[in-house]
Every structure is written in C-alpha cells, then in structure tokens.
Amino acid sequence: MKLDRNYSLIEIAKLINAKAIGDEEFVVSGINEIHMVTSGDITFVDHEKYYNKALNSNATTIIINKDVPCPEGKTLLISDDPFRDYNYLTKFFSPLQQPENPIYTIGKNSSVGINTYIHQGVVIGNNVKIGDNCIIYPNVVIYDHSIIGNNVIIQANTVIGGDAFYYKRRPDYYEKMHSCGRTVLEDWVEIGCNCTIDRGVSGDTIIGQGTKLDNLVQIGHDNVIGKNCIIASQCGIAGVTTIEDEVILWGQVGVTKDIIIGKGAIVSAKSGVSKSLEGGKSYFGAPAKEFKQAILELAYIAKLPKMFKDLKK
Amino acid sequence: MKLDRNYSLIEIAKLINAKAIGDEEFVVSGINEIHMVTSGDITFVDHEKYYNKALNSNATTIIINKDVPCPEGKTLLISDDPFRDYNYLTKFFSPLQQPENPIYTIGKNSSVGINTYIHQGVVIGNNVKIGDNCIIYPNVVIYDHSIIGNNVIIQANTVIGGDAFYYKRRPDYYEKMHSCGRTVLEDWVEIGCNCTIDRGVSGDTIIGQGTKLDNLVQIGHDNVIGKNCIIASQCGIAGVTTIEDEVILWGQVGVTKDIIIGKGAIVSAKSGVSKSLEGGKSYFGAPAKEFKQAILELAYIAKLPKMFKDLKK
Amino acid sequence: MKLDRNYSLIEIAKLINAKAIGDEEFVVSGINEIHMVTSGDITFVDHEKYYNKALNSNATTIIINKDVPCPEGKTLLISDDPFRDYNYLTKFFSPLQQPENPIYTIGKNSSVGINTYIHQGVVIGNNVKIGDNCIIYPNVVIYDHSIIGNNVIIQANTVIGGDAFYYKRRPDYYEKMHSCGRTVLEDWVEIGCNCTIDRGVSGDTIIGQGTKLDNLVQIGHDNVIGKNCIIASQCGIAGVTTIEDEVILWGQVGVTKDIIIGKGAIVSAKSGVSKSLEGGKSYFGAPAKEFKQAILELAYIAKLPKMFKDLKK
After folding, report:
1. pTM for the whole thing?
2. Do A269 and C254 touch (CB under 8 A)?
3. Quick check: is C221 catalytic?
C-alpha cells in the first residue's frame, strides 16, 4: 500500500509511539508485508526467526521488537508489539469504510445491536438477534432464529442457518426433516465469504467464542465448535460433531458426523477425519491418523517401487 | 427447542394421534433430537438399533414404533411412524414462516407457479419456468432458460445455470464457448446453500426427481443426475457425466467428466472418481476403487513400517 | 438446443460462410454438442481423434475442418475453424441477453467502463475500478479497492476482495490483521460462480490476464496467479503463493501458502500441493509428487495384499 504522501520516519514513530533508529527525516512512502515490500516501505517483524529476513528485505523501515543494529541505508522503529503497531498504521492510513445508507431486509422480532454495520443486500430472517459492534458484509443471508453475539464479522455472501441436510429414506423417496433449530455465533466469531453454517434440526449449531472460519467452509447441522478454533478454507464438518476448543483444521479437511475432535488437535490440510480424535495431537491423511504415523507410511510407500524390485531379485 | 409453554403428555398424544404410555399429565416442555435432549424433552426413535439409546437418554418422552416397557420416570408415545409424528410436532410448534412482501427480480417470459415462495433478493433470468409449491431462499440467482419443477427447494445464495466452464485453447489465449443450454431441476429436488449448478453448453444439465444436494456442491455443465440421489456437501461433478438413480456421494467427493456412475453406487467421503463405476457397489479412495479393496490396501499400508523392518532383518 | 424453426443446410452454411456438402435443402432443427445430439442437430468436430465419433453420432449435420466423405443420410459443413463457427451459431440463435434496468450499488470513487453490464443485486465498494466490456452477474460482491480490467466476466454470487484470513495468536484469542490491500483481475479474466478471491493484506492479490476460474474456487490473500491459467472447480490456494503462467489445476486441488508453482505445471484433481513445483511437469497426489511416480506408487500399493501373502509363505 502506497501512502497518500511521503512521511518522515519521525512522523510515523510518533503515530505508534515507537523509538526511531536512524535519520528522523528518512522517507517513508508505503507499508507492506515482508513478502511484498519495496524501497520506501515499512514492514514489521516480531519473531526472532524472521529478523534477518525482514532486516535484509527491500523494506527500508522495519518495526521490530528488539534493539538490533540498524542495517546501512535503513531505519528501525522499536516497538514492544510490532503486529499491533503495524495494524494501527494500516488502519490509520486505510481505515475501514462503513457503508452509507445500505438497504437490507430484516424480519419480525429481530434486533440489531449498537455500532453494528449491516451492508447492502443482507437478508435477516425473523426472530434473529445480532449483537453490538458487528459487521455483516453484503448479501449475507441469516435465517430465522439465528443468534449472533458481539464483535462478530461475517464476510459477503455467507449463509447462516440454512436447513439441515437430514432426510428419512422412504421406499420411493427421501422425506425432509423440518429444521427448526438455531444457529448461534458467539462473541468475536469471524466467518469468511460464501460459508454455509446450517441451523440445528431442533437444537443449536454453535460456533464458540473467538473461532475464525475462512472462506467456503461448511458447518453442518447441530455441530458444536469450541472457542478459538481456526477452520481454514473449504473445510467441511458433517453434522452433530463436537470440535473442542483451540482445534485447528487446515484447508479442505473433511470431518464426519457424530464424532469428537479433542481440544487443541491440529488436522493437516486435505485430511478426512473418520472417527474421534484425541486432543493435543497432530493428524494427517484420509482417513486421518497421527501425523508422524501418516508421514512414516508415506515414506515407506515411496520406497515400494525399489522394494518390489529388490524382492524380485 | 423449548415449547411456548408446558404441555401435558395427553395434549401431545392427541396432536399426533399416538397412544400415550404413562401419566397423562406428565410435563412436556421441549422437543429435540436424541443427541441434544434434556429433561422435559420429547425425542423420537424408529429403529430397533437405537431403542435403548433413546429410552436411556435424557429425554423424558419418547415417540417410538414399538410397545416397549416404559422406563421409570418417563413416558412413551406409541406411533406407527415416529419420524412423521416428530416432524409434525416441530412444524406445529415452529412452523415455516414465509416471507412477507419480498422484493425480487424476474426476467422476460418467466413464470412462477402457485404457492411458490420467492424470497428477498432472488434474481430470476429470462425464459425461466418455476413450478408450484417451491421455496426459493434469499439471494438465489437463476440464469436464463432454467426449468424448475414442483416442490423444489433452493437454499440461499445458490446459483442455478451459471455458464459452462468450457474453453478452447488458442495459441495465446483461451476462447470461451458460449453457453446457451438449460438447467433442469425436476420435481422434489432440493439444493443446499451456495451450490453451483451450471447450465448445459447447448444441451441440458438435469437433476432428477427427488434428488437432494447439500451445501457448496458443484454440478458442472451437461451432467445428468438421476432420481433420488444424495449428494453431500462440497462434492463436485465435472461435466458431461451421468449419475444414475439412487447414487449416494458422501462429502467432498470429486467426479471426473464424461463417465457413468451406475445405479445405487455409494461413494465414500473424499473419494475421487476417475472412471465409470458399476452400480450397486461401494467405493472409496482417490482414485476410487471398490470399498473393500481400498480398505484392504489401507490396512497393508499401515503394516509397511513393520514389514520393512522385518525384511531388513 | 432446438432452433426457432427448421432451417435448410444452405441457410446455415451462409451464416458461417462454410462449404455445404449434401442436399442444400437438408433440414436442420437443432444444435448441440456431440454427447447430446439427436437427428436434425448440428454438431462440430475439429480434432481428427474425434472425427469418427462425430460422423457416426446422431447428429445429421457436422461442422468439420476436413473434407471427409459424407456419411449416408447426413450433411457436412466444411470450416477452417469449427469451434468458432459453432460458437457463432449458438450466439446467433441464442444471443446473450443483457439485463434491463438492473439495480445495483456502487461506492464512492468507483467507476465502470463502457459496454460493461452490471446485473441486479451486485454490490461494488469504494475506490473500485471496473474496465470495459465486462459482465458482472447478479449478487456479485466487490470489496473496496478492487481493480478489474477489460473483458472480465464474473459469474453470480462470487466475492472479490474479501478480507485476508490472517490472525495473530495472542495468549487468549486471535487478533485480526486489518486488510487494506487490493484485488486485481487483469484483462480477459473469467471467474465462476460462488468463488472467493481475497484481497491482499496490504499488497495485491493478482489474477493474471486470460486466466479462467471455475466455480467455488478459493484464492487466498496476496496470491499472484499468472496469465492463461486454468483453475477448475473447488480448488483452493492458501495465500502468498505464486502460480506462474499457463498452470492448470484440476478439480479440488489444494495449494499451500508461500510456494511457487512453475510455468505450465499441470496438477491432477484432488491433489494437495505442499511445496514448490517445477514448471512444465505433471503432478498428482496429496502431497503432490510427479505424476508418473505417484501412479507407480499407486500400482505398487494395489499389489500389497498379494505381496504380503507371498511373503508369509
């Protein structure tokens, strides 16, 4: 991101209350993450592992949480929390713009809290409660009886509370189970674009406090997701499953119905979880097994061609 | 789901014409599925396999299709069809609310049948025909020339009839094939949220009668899906493929183009179907093979680490 | 597709300036692709490999790029470019209809080029630039600061520029990184339905000229996709990854963050790309490896049951 004009190092330092190392009049013209920086840019680093990468990058001003020697031709901004200060700067120079006079639909007995922004084209059903300080992006659809806490963000075109995928097999057809349950998003939940969170059949589908979902995630009916979970893009959770707190599911993971994934479990991308998993461990594969075991098996599979040859001998 | 007030057992029994076993004044305060029940709740069970689970659950009133001994402190409702009666009760206590005065768009030469509800924000193209008794949820988009039968339900934000993904490679670019085919959803089809059903290039994409799609399903151009199929969330079917009647694809299955999946085949979650499959069998894996063979291979893979060790000796 | 009336062979030949072989009054009543044709239909073939299939299909008029013997009871239209001429005919008989008086929303400092059609329900944020000759289908959402070139097509319900999925782990919660980057779609890009293209955190997410995305594709923040790539349905690319020109990702492929896929690489369906891939090669598997190696390993896995048996002996 280019800034609206050139700033001096000392101007930036004052904005974030950081200690400036280098020429106070040093020119700052942009702000960017480490993988995208060019000369004139500020970037940030807050982990020792990446100090060298940041200091040697094309960025000429680095927000850093250690008083390291300043590289030739560059400047530093010493901060106790570079992420916070970088975030402050991007918000300062490119603040979030809230919609003006959006037109949206809201049903009967539904309420929206204070300081909550509902964007254009959002459709909110009946008996829905939305808390304070939320942002609901355009064309989101929220079905009847959904409960949305405070500080919740829902990105565009997501659907909250679609009907459960639940049918009874009759001899000649499938009969639809009527969905009358709720969808509950607790405080600080964030949902990506084009996600689908189905309502409970007659109970609640719950996304716990602070849990973050990326785009195109499917959460089936009556799932209970814990607090501070990370669910990456294109994951799908079937239904009636419990995901405990602080679980991480990486991209395109599938989880079957009616199981439990224990607290803090981490499931690698593209895995398929077919049974309950103990917490605190890492998993991979379809069906998912403990990460080390899965990797070991892959290593042996790679040796099969040679092994068959050797055996033939 | 909590009921609006406490009901007596006999009141509920009369609603569904069931035989009540236990104190007629026994209090019923809620209704829920077996995995979510608490004291005061009604639940239902219609399969011998789950009788004990239901009778021993926290539910205190059980709709059941056999005259079993009533557990201490509980009551029973004997029904010839517990699913039907449970469904009746949830609809009675939490009826589906149809939208009032929704604003939607409809193109030229398009028609909507009687008793069909079109929700807010739906966009219907030209030359579209929608039958009777349908529900089209908010922000669904239906492209030109789509044909939708009777009793069809389309959940929010789904797209019916998007252009085929079909290009000709030219030396320096891809040239788009013009899509002018149709999308046909036969009677009783139900489509989840955020699905994409592409139109035929110049023929028809067809979803057969009674087939149900979960959320985020992709149906490519010119696919012909049979009757009473179940396609779970995040499945994708490439194009020009035939899925015969009563096929079940579980979650995140991918199906390549221009093949046939035979009647009644069942494909397990996360499988990738790379060639035609015979009907009446179960499959798993990527590429998918017969279920038993796939499971057998997985079992042997798990033995590889020990086998390599043994061979070394 | 049925035509509005019966046409004679010579009428059709004149429309596309082709040489007609057979009875000039031969009746043409429809137009369809080879897999869907019936008597009276025109179809096309432009590859020797498919000549016989086309000539022996139910189509009775074949647009073909070689002067082959005309089958009994059929007619030919000789063309130097059957795809172009077929496409011309479908556009002639079923032209794309642009929306009349659509209502959409556009933010501050945003502009739309000439001959660009914005459909009903589209929401365009602030500081967005959309070029000439584009089609933006209904209910698409375009976030602030997006840049869209000329001749771009975006199918319905897609989201351009959603927030990056980027959080910092704090002891008790995840802190959201403010997204202020852009999303850039270069000229001739086409995006399917219900896709999600996230904006850069503070840099740009870029989709290169002529690249085509199918439905339900996820492109994470700060990815840079090259020119003339094909990305099939339900692929997901994590973030900060570079996909060079002319890469093909088939359906449901996942790509991890911060890697490079080299020019012209082809990744088979359902693969999971966990590290950078050299260009010009084919890959398969999760994790993806060179196609031949992956297929070889699969072949040996299939032999495991017999091998274990033999070893036991």
Report:
1. 0.97
2. yes
3. yes
